[in-house]
Amino acid sequence: APAIVWFREDLRLSDNPALHAAVASHRPLILLYIHDEETDGLRHHGGASKWWLDKSLRALAGDIEAAGAQLTLRSGKSNEVLDAVLNVTGADAVFWNRRYDKPERDLDARIKADLTERRIDVTSYNGRLLNEPWAVETNAGGYYKVFTPYWKQARQCINARDTYGRHKTLNGPDVDSESLDDWGLHPTKPDWSTGFDDWTPGEDGALARLKEFLDGPINGYKDNRDRPDLDWSTSGLSPHLRFGEIGPLQIWRAVHAGMEAGNIHEKDGMHFLSEVGWREFSHTLLYYNPDLATENYNDSFQHMPWRTDETALDAWKKGQTGYPMVDAGMRQLWQTGWMHNRVRMIVASFLTKHLLLPWQEGEKWFWDTLVDADPANNSASWQWTAGSGADAAPYFRVFNPISQGTKFDESGDYVRRFCPELKDLPDKYLHAPWEADKATLKKAGITLGETYPKPIVDHSAARQRALDAYDTLKEKR
Ligand code: FAD
């Protein structure tokens, strides 16, 4: 009888353990993707992620077709769709790679219990992480809450097996499939829907990006990774990892091979892998704290006197705060679906500290606008920046958006790219246009408050307000 391979967050044909095991079972395969917006409790993809998913599924369908089989697309409740496909095909086994967000985990557990009772074999695999959350424990038992000891231990636990090559031939019966065009994942409205063309969603795009990064830019990563003004200062692999077009073990093996061959400097390779380690750590935090996207990890933040201010929130979302580094970041996000990590920290700090707005607002906006929006990384990183997370940046460390700009966008190329209205401003004033005298502004064609906003908050006053708010929280502890 045939078997179903249920693709979820693993849209690739190489090093895909569930697919690999299914092929090894020598059965005809039904390669299935379910678009489930009906099961209660699942968080739907945001707009930018849907854009990516659409392209990624097209790429996967093409790769599967080239291998001689078909990607079956169905929408609806996952359990009902599986039942229908099992019935019509007579399949008696299902293979999948595990997920770690609680609603998905619960759904998978329910389906597995139900199918097992009906004598349908369900086998699940790790296709997403170097180590699954429960595989790395402290001496006392339990999970690590601090990154450095976590990663030290996690590195020792990795099962660095050989990666599985790409499956070049696949076969199975043709099954009725819906059409991607009918799913309407590709948004037509926002102006960004054309602007994401820099990306190549899909497994080929992911592997090409890894190769290009490892062939050069990785050497220098440790020094350059905080530079949003440089192309390739980081790998840009995050959306590919998010959708599982590449697995972390493929990255781990390729970086180690490069270091062993002497092509990748040890310090850069290891630093890059430690960032992949932050992804693992974030998944662990999410696994043990299912409400990480909405609830403070650190309970004392329950008492934080966050403000409500729709106007300020809107200015932040639109990149109209009057702080060029913040605005450039928010516009990069809107226009490209991605933002450099250093700038993510700056804009997140600005929202939670300068504007004193709840981090959950930022988490939601990123969820909708990032092509790499990830339940683990996004929640853990927002809480890290806000100070409410595990192993977080201390709340009192308020990023200064001006000095962060002069330090990490020294040339000003980044701000000039995303805030072109400031491009003729001399470097000296680029990160604080309000400090320029009238003649300089005029020469650069800028009228503050008209062509570019005046700062929506004063840096020193906002910083003090944030620290005072934080102090009230300490008193309550
Ligand atoms: P590289 O530097 O090339 O790193 C390689 C990979 O390591 C990344 O692709 C990513 O999977 C992982 N990684 C790197 N940094 C981190 C980190 N700090 N935490 C967890 N994993 C990391 N990352 C997401 O993938 N999805 C998100 O939704 C997300 N939201 C974020 C929100 C905020 C407020 C902040 C401060 C960071 C967020 N990050 C998120 C983490 C980080 O910014 C991105 O992973 C990184 O910018 C992706 O670019 P890259 O692939 O070029 O990274």
Automatic annotation (TrEMBL):
Its EC number is 4.1.99.3. One of its GO terms (biological process) is response to light stimulus. Pfam families: DNA_photolyase, FAD_binding_7. It catalyses: cyclobutadipyrimidine (in DNA) = 2 pyrimidine residues (in DNA). InterPro entries: Crypto/Photolyase_FAD-like_sf (IPR036134), Crypto/Photolyase_N_sf (IPR036155), Cryptochr/Photolyase_FAD-bd (IPR005101), Cryptochrome/DNA_photolyase_1 (IPR002081), DNA_photolyase_1_CS_C (IPR018394), DNA_photolyase_N (IPR006050), Rossmann-like_a/b/a_fold (IPR014729). It is an enzyme of class 4 (lyase). One of its GO terms (molecular function) is FAD binding. Residues 1-130 form the Photolyase/cryptochrome alpha/beta domain. Gene3D superfamilies: 1.25.40.80, DNA Cyclobutane Dipyrimidine Photolyase, subunit A, domain 3 (1.10.579.10), HUPs (3.40.50.620). The keyword Transferase does not apply. FAD binds at residues 221, 234-238, 272, 372-374. It comes from the Bacteria. The keyword RNA-binding does not apply. Keywords: Chromophore, FAD, Flavoprotein. Its cofactor is FAD; (6R)-5,10-methylene-5,6,7,8-tetrahydrofolate. The record marks 306, 359, 382 as: Electron transfer via tryptophanyl radical. Binds 1 FAD per subunit. Belongs to the DNA photolyase family. This is Deoxyribodipyrimidine photo-lyase. It comes from Hyphomonas atlantica.
